[in-house]
């Protein structure tokens, strides 16, 4: 197998050796895991299935989780490289907006609305590289209009940048969205923008994200008569449930998940599969987040059990469908001797959202781990083809 696959395990070993040749046993002790686990992760035979474990290992190595994930450093994917060419212009636009500068519009209001609709269409399909090319000019024109128009485009920018691996810039965009929505006191967009903010915070800041969601929930509750606000309250509960799980507060997480489920039961799934701002909040989305939370808790059997009750295709956003298949695939791979089923799930995840799947370091590691376990046998052709599309070269 080509070691250029650059797995999380390979990066852990790199940083461990940079720390004065720290042994696996020392790293394991600092991170609260076993030496055998570190060994399996470094060799690529096992994946890291919990965000909290990533945080612990990164802290022990005195690096960021982004360093271990290699976010922002991947190359070789043409679509991502084209998107990367747009990132400096997006960053420049965000700086200009945050500094209060406003240019004259280069298009009409109707043309801005059409640009927003096109960006939303690309977001629904998870085509973030194509979306990135629209954003520099769209942000500057939206800034001239301000209010909910700027909040919406900045939200789009935050989502796009986060999924391309530029989380620090996604946070800038989310802050722009929050300020724009608060300027016009638009509660639904305040909720959406604050949700984008919690999503953009690094994994290490899970507790900060949970507390930010709590504050937003308290402030928005007075406007819960608006169905759009209720959808965003539900999303904020889901965000708080996951981040509370990551930060080691399972009881708080259960309370937030229960509140989200209660809200979803009264709203139902959105009739168009999207709902306000494409959030897709409803019973199906709650189940998808519940799968992710079970995965974070290492409850692989629970993930598989939940998957039998979910029909992700009722939601329009392909990233939610990918989330279903990716969480299921990782649970199947971790549960033992179900690699063939896991591979099938990963192929479905890639079909749902090709670009995000190829860029997802956890997906890459899972594919490499399956290949490592298959080394004693013939590597299945489907696995070889999937790895090839992700830029991973599996030697014969």
Task: Please tag this protein with its features.
0% strand, 396 residues, 434 Repressor (Amino-terminal Domain), mainly alpha
How far apart the termini lie comes to 8 Å
Strand content: under 5%
What does the main sheet amount to?
none
Shape: globular
User: Approximately how much helix is present in the residues?
Assistant: over 70%
Mean pLDDT: 89
| Rg from alpha-carbon coordinates | 21 Å
Order of helices and strands: HHHHHHHHHHHHHHHHHHHHH
Number of helices: 21
Strand tally, please? 0
Helix/strand-derived category reads mainly alpha
Low-pLDDT sequence parts: 1-5
Précis, in short:
The chain is mostly helical and 396 residues long. It is built from 21 helices and no strands. The chain has helices at 8-18, 24-31, 35-43, 51-61, 65-69, 78-98, 109-124, 128-145, 147-163, 167-183, 187-200, 206-220, 227-246, 250-267, 283-296, 300-307, 318-335, 339-352, 354-359, 361-373, 381-389.
């Amino acid at each position: 197998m080509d070691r250029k696959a650059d797995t999380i395990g390979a990066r852990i070993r790199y940083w461990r050796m940079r720390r004065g040749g720290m042994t696996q046993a020392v790293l394991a002790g600092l991170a609260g895991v076993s030496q055998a686990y570190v060994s399996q992760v470094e060799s690529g035979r096992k994946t890291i299935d919990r965000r909290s474990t990533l945080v612990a290992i990164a802290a022990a190595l005195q690096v960021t989780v982004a360093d271990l994930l290699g976010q922002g450093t991947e190359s070789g994917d043409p679509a991502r490289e084209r998107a990367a060419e747009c990132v400096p212009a997006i960053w420049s636009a965000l700086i200009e907006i945050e500094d209060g500068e406003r240019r004259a519009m280069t298009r009409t209001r109707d043309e801005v609305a059409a640009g927003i609709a096109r960006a939303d269409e690309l977001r629904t399909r998870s085509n973030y590289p194509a979306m990135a090319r629209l954003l520099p000019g769209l942000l500057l024109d939206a800034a001239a209009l301000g209010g909910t128009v700027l909040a919406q485009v900045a939200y789009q920018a935050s989502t796009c940048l986060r999924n391309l691996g530029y989380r620090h810039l996604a946070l800038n965009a989310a802050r722009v969205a929050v300020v724009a929505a608060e300027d016009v006191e638009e509660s639904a967009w305040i909720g959406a923008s604050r949700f984008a903010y919690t999503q953009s915070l690094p994994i290490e800041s899970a507790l900060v994200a949970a507390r930010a969601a709590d504050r937003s929930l308290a402030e928005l509750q007075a406007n819960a008569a608006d169905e759009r606000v209720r959808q965003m309250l539900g999303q904020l509960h889901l965000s708080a449930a996951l981040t509370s799980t990551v930060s080691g507060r399972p009881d708080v997480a259960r309370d937030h998940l229960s509140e989200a489920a209660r809200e979803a039961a009264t709203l139902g799934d959105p009739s168009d599969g999207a709902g306000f701002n494409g959030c897709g909040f409803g019973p199906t989305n709650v189940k998808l987040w519940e799968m992710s939370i079970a995965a974070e808790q290492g409850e692989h059997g629970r993930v598989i059990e939940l998957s039998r009750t979910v029909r992700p295709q009722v939601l329009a956003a392909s990233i939610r469908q990918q989330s279903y298949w990716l969480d299921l695939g990782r649970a199947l791979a971790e549960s033992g001797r179900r690699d063939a089923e896991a591979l099938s799930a990963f192929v479905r995840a890639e079909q749902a959202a090709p670009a995000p799947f190829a860029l997802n370091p956890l997906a890459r590691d899972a594919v490499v781990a399956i290949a490592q376990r298959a080394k004693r046998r013939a590597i299945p052709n489907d696995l070889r083809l999937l790895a090839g599309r992700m830029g991973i070269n599996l030697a014969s």
